[in-house]
Amino acid sequence: MAHTWTYQGYPGNSEVIFELFPEGEKTRLRLTHSGLGSFPDDAHFARHRFEKGWKAIIGYKLKHYLEKR
User: Fold this and answer.
1) CB-count burial class (<10 Å; 0-12, 13-18, 19+) for 41
2) Which of 10, 16, 28, 69 has the highest CB neighbour number within 10 Å of its CB?
3) Domain tally for the chain?
4) What pLDDT tens digit does each residue of the chain (69 aa) get?
């Protein structure tokens, strides 16, 4: 599954790809976020901010959401 990632009012266009792989009784997720260099050269669009954000979303928020279901 792929998603185009943009910010309203800012130039740039990136793509987030989510790939799922079966691993026994579990599923592995590979997330690839490409095109970050197309965003403005600004601290708000720094690579480490995207990495930190995805770690929080996938590593904590998604897990927490699914466990509550």
Assistant:
1) exposed
2) 16
3) 1
4) 999 999 999 999 999 999 999 999 999 999 999 999 999 999 999 999 999 999 999 989 998 998 887
Residue 29, SS3? strand
Residues 6+ apart with CB under 8 A from 49: 43
Say if CB 36 and CB 14 are below 8 A apart.
Answer: yes
Which range marks the domain in which residue 19 is found? Answer: 2-68
Question: How far apart, in whole angstroms, are the C-alpha atoms of residue 16 and residue 50?
Answer: 11
- List residues bridging with 34 in a β-sheet: 15
In the numeric block, the tokens 């800012």 are attached to 10
